[in-house]
Amino acid sequence: MNKFQGTGVALVTPFNTDGSVDYNGLKNLINHLTEGGIDYLVSLGTTGETATMTKDEKKKVWAYTAEINNNRLPLVAGIGGNDTLAVAEDIKSFDTAGYSAILSVSPYYNKPTQEGIYQHYKHLAEISPLDLILYNVPGRTGSNMSPETTCRLAHDFKNIIATKEASGSFDQFNQIMRDKPADFLLISGDDPVTLPMIALGAAGIISVIGNALPKQFSDMVNLCLAGDYRTALPAHLALIEFTRLAFAEGNPAGIKAALRHLGVCGDTVRLPLVKASSMLEKAINAELDKINQTV
C-alpha cells in the first residue's frame, strides 16, 4: 500500500476539438506527470469526464494509459456507478494489466442507506481482482458514506485498502483516523485541505491541480509527509489562488485551461460541461505564470 502514499493525480481525458479522445495529448499528460514527480496515476475518475464516455472509449483509454505509463508509476482505474451489479460486471471484465487498484465512487443519485452502501462495496470486494479504494464525495453523489461505514468496510475486507475522502468534514476525518485498521489509508480528495489532512495522518492526496503543477504539488506533499510543515506551509499557501481558480467554473474546465496554457493538451470538454470563460482562463494563465516564475 506504500505505492499509494504521496501524490496521486486524477487524470483529465484530453479531447480533440471534434470531441474524440486525444491520445497524443494523453501521452503528453502522462509524461508531464511522471517527469513532475507524481507518485501514482488515476485513470478515468470524475476528472476524466467518465460520465460522458462510452464503454469502448474507457477500455481504450485504460489500455493506452497502461501502455504509455509502461509500469513507471502505479496505476488506479476509476470504476464506479449506482447500479451495483453493473459496476461488478465492469470490474470483472476489466483488463487489469498494468493496474494496481480500482477507485470506486460511493453510489450516487439513488441515495442508499449506510447499509446499502456497505452491501454495495461488500459485493464489489468479493468479486474484484484488484484492491479497492473507496471514494466518498457527497457533493457529487448526494449521499455521505459515514466514518462508521468506511471503517466497517476497512475491517471486514482486506482488499479494501484506502478511502479517498472528499466530504470536507474534519470531524469525519478524525473518526476515520481513530477507528480504521492501522494499514488502511486515508487519502485526501480535496486539494486545498491536503496539508492539514496529512498532519492528521492522511497518506496523501488524489489531486486535480497536480495535472498542471505536478512538481510544485508533489514537493509540498512530500514535505508534509516528512513532517516539515514549516517549509510546506508557504508552498501550500502559494497554491491556494490557483486552486480556487481551477475549480471556479467546475472540474475539469479550469484545469484543462491550465493544461492548454502549458502546451500539454487542449481544453475541450464534453457537454454538458463547457470550457472555462475567457475571463477565468486569463486569470488561470496569469496565476500559473506567477507560480512558474517563482520555481
UniProtKB/TrEMBL annotation:
<dbReference type="InterPro" id="IPR005263">
    <property type="entry name" value="DapA"/>
</dbReference>
<feature type="active site" description="Schiff-base intermediate with substrate">
    <location>
        <position position="164"/>
    </location>
</feature>
<comment type="subunit">
    <text>Homotetramer; dimer of dimers.</text>
</comment>
<comment type="function">
    <text>Catalyzes the condensation of (S)-aspartate-beta-semialdehyde [(S)-ASA] and pyruvate to 4-hydroxy-tetrahydrodipicolinate (HTPA).</text>
</comment>
<dbReference type="GO" id="GO:0019877">
    <property type="term" value="P:diaminopimelate biosynthetic process"/>
</dbReference>
<keyword id="KW-0028">Amino-acid biosynthesis</keyword>
<keyword id="KW-0456">Lyase</keyword>
<keyword id="KW-0704">Schiff base</keyword>
<keyword id="KW-0963">Cytoplasm</keyword>
<dbReference type="InterPro" id="IPR002220">
    <property type="entry name" value="DapA-like"/>
</dbReference>
<feature type="binding site">
    <location>
        <position position="206"/>
    </location>
    <ligand>
        <name>pyruvate</name>
    </ligand>
</feature>
<comment type="pathway">
    <text>Amino-acid biosynthesis; L-lysine biosynthesis via DAP pathway; (S)-tetrahydrodipicolinate from L-aspartate: step 3/4.</text>
</comment>
<keyword id="KW-0220">Diaminopimelate biosynthesis</keyword>
<dbReference type="InterPro" id="IPR013785">
    <property type="entry name" value="Aldolase_TIM"/>
</dbReference>
<feature type="active site" description="Proton donor/acceptor">
    <location>
        <position position="135"/>
    </location>
</feature>
<dbReference type="GO" id="GO:0008840">
    <property type="term" value="F:4-hydroxy-tetrahydrodipicolinate synthase activity"/>
</dbReference>
<dbReference type="GO" id="GO:0009089">
    <property type="term" value="P:lysine biosynthetic process via diaminopimelate"/>
</dbReference>
<feature type="site" description="Part of a proton relay during catalysis">
    <location>
        <position position="109"/>
    </location>
</feature>
<protein>
    <recommendedName>
        <fullName>4-hydroxy-tetrahydrodipicolinate synthase</fullName>
        <ecNumber>4.3.3.7</ecNumber>
    </recommendedName>
</protein>
<dbReference type="GO" id="GO:0005829">
    <property type="term" value="C:cytosol"/>
</dbReference>
<feature type="site" description="Part of a proton relay during catalysis">
    <location>
        <position position="46"/>
    </location>
</feature>
<keyword id="KW-0457">Lysine biosynthesis</keyword>
<feature type="binding site">
    <location>
        <position position="47"/>
    </location>
    <ligand>
        <name>pyruvate</name>
    </ligand>
</feature>
<dbReference type="Pfam" id="PF00701">
    <property type="entry name" value="DHDPS"/>
</dbReference>
<comment type="similarity">
    <text>Belongs to the DapA family.</text>
</comment>
